[in-house]
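Q: Two folds, back to back.
A: First:
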Amino acid sequence: MPATDKPCSVFNAYNFKRDVQDLIGHVTYLKIGETELAKDQELKVPLDDSLLKVVGPIAQFHWEGGFSQPLLFSFQLSITNKNNVAALLHTQMQSIAIAIAFNIYEYDPMDKKFFKCVHSNDANLTAIIYVQGSDRQLYLADQPGSEVPKPLNYQLTLGVISEDTKQDIHLAVSVSQKFVKPWGVTRG
């Protein structure tokens, strides 16, 4: 099964220029346990240059493509959200439940415009933090990111695995070639 690997430009997410055709991604919603992170960064949407309040810009997305394989994200958080996640990490996490929504945009050189190449279709995917061995896939950088000096931002790396329900990951390889792949397996 082909993997989906999308290295996104944090620099261009914060400083969007239409003539720079990097991949750009946004985490548009994130809830860890009972803690909903703020949509406190306003970034441009490459489709139409509108502004959207997001949790943060994506630096990296990876999915091997299987029903029960994790979605792996690295993205930038504001200081407020960094502090909220740090508090979760340094205390007993009561829940590893995750709800996440995201969009990744790619440029189509044939149609000369951006399109959503991987996204949750404005739905909050329900998941749990992925655990590999005894390691929880939730890491927060101690130092600010270096891609942009301001606003201060901190990288969060998060792996999530679908709860026991089938959900959809929307993908596209061009403006006109779109498809949906299932993620997760419903237990009967």
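A: Second:
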Amino acid sequence: MDESQNSVELGLSAGFISVKSTRTWRGIRRRRSGPFVIINRGNGLALDNGVQEHNGAEPIMWRPHGFEPQQWVFIRTPHWGEYVICSVGNKLALDARTTSDLSRTPCMWARHAEPHQRWRFRRTEDGHGYTIASVLTGHVLDFPEGSGSRAVPHLYERHGDLRQQFLITSLTAGGFAEGG
């Protein structure tokens, strides 16, 4: 397996934690893996559940801190290469919604693993990040240009910009080997 170096600094109320690993997430062999922090390469903000615990709540982007609202587990589905992304903090799954409208916002919903809750990860061309695509439509997680903290992500056509690329950083030990 090739190795890439990844470094993330998490800002905490008591200071900063620097996480440096020579191995990043590469796929899952186990049924459930994580927790991970999902950090946007375009703005450096982390996917966060916004401390919301109800079905239909929208995730937000927030300064990385690594606490439960920003921790996500990936649950392998019976469909090869497809995962459900669940928040550790509220136990809800990232959901692309049942429509195919461009620029729709994802929400969080009780886990059921229908196509609108399944996601595929694709390595970026430079090999340092991933795009996260909805199985339902193929639209990828994206952050509107110029968006900052508390912004809600949306789903958009893949264009390769850094706003559609994510670092997936393990809060435990290193990365994982590819697996379906």
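Q: And?
A: The radius of gyration is 15 Å.
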